[in-house]
Amino acid sequence: KADHVFEPNNLEASIGDTVVFEFYPLNHSVVRADYRYPCIPYEDTGADRRGFFSGFLPISRIGNDMPQWNITINDTAPIFYYCSAPGSCINYGMVGAINPNSSAQVSEQQNLARAANYMLQPGEPFPAEASSSMSSLATSTPTAPPVVSSTPTSSPTPTPAPTSSPALFKGAIAGIAIG
User: Fold this and answer.
1) SS (H, E, C) 58-71
2) Domains in the chain: how many in total?
3) Measured between alpha carbons, how far is 126 from 13 in angstroms, rounded to an integer?
4) Cα–Cα distance between 113 and 65 in angstroms, integer?
5) How crowded is the C-beta side of 53, counted as CA atoms within 13 Å?
6) I need a surface site. Which of 98, 122, 172, 178 has the fewest CB within 10 A?
7) Does residue 26 have a cis peptide bond before it, meaning omega lies within 30 degrees of 0?
8) How far is the C-alpha of 69 from the C-alpha of 83, rounded, in Å?
């Protein structure tokens, strides 16, 4: 697997589909972001917003049962996400999208990520320089947030036990490799 990428970095999903993120070495995460705010947790970009965070899943080696983390799609609006491992978003542009469209594209999000001056972990405070950079990014009106439920399918350990979930029967399953 490639280093510091979501593979694929965009996919189409329908309501009821489960998107499975599969983790590869060394240590990555999945954090929801808003379009045009690529390396900032979604909940920090506006009032009453609820994001998601997989937590960090450190992996020491590749095996048969890599840890996975799932979200169930409840809305077909674009959902953007990034890896919050140090440097992944701002140095490598490690971002992705579910249901991107012509007005909300992964390539634009990736360019903005690489141009960002900082990235945040969920719960981390904004740096002092954030007020000017946040206002410069706010060039579009955000849409109503889609509803996303998240369910980890393994514990954050290097050798997780295989698990299954009844949510897998609701819709199709799409996989994204993280590494």
Assistant:
1) ECCCCCCCCCEEEE
2) 1
3) 32
4) 31
5) 16
6) 172
7) yes
8) 13
Residue range 31-44, pLDDT digits in tens: 999 999 999 999 99
Q: Mean pLDDT for the chain?
A: 77
Strand partners, 150: 71
Whats the size of the chain, residue-wise? 179
Residues 109-134: tens digit of each pLDDT: 999 999 999 999 898 888 887 765 55
Q: Which domain holds residue 40?
A: 6-132+171-178
Gyration radius of the chain over CA positions: 16
Segment holding 137, helix H or strand E:
helix 130-137
Q: How far is CA 161 from CA 18, 88, 105, 106, in A?
A: 19, 27, 36, 33
- pTM, rounded to two decimals: 0.74
Distance of alpha carbon 77 from alpha carbon 12, whole angstroms: 10
In a domain, 149, yes or no: no
Residue 1 within any structural domain of the chain: no
CATH of the domain at 105: 2.60.40.420
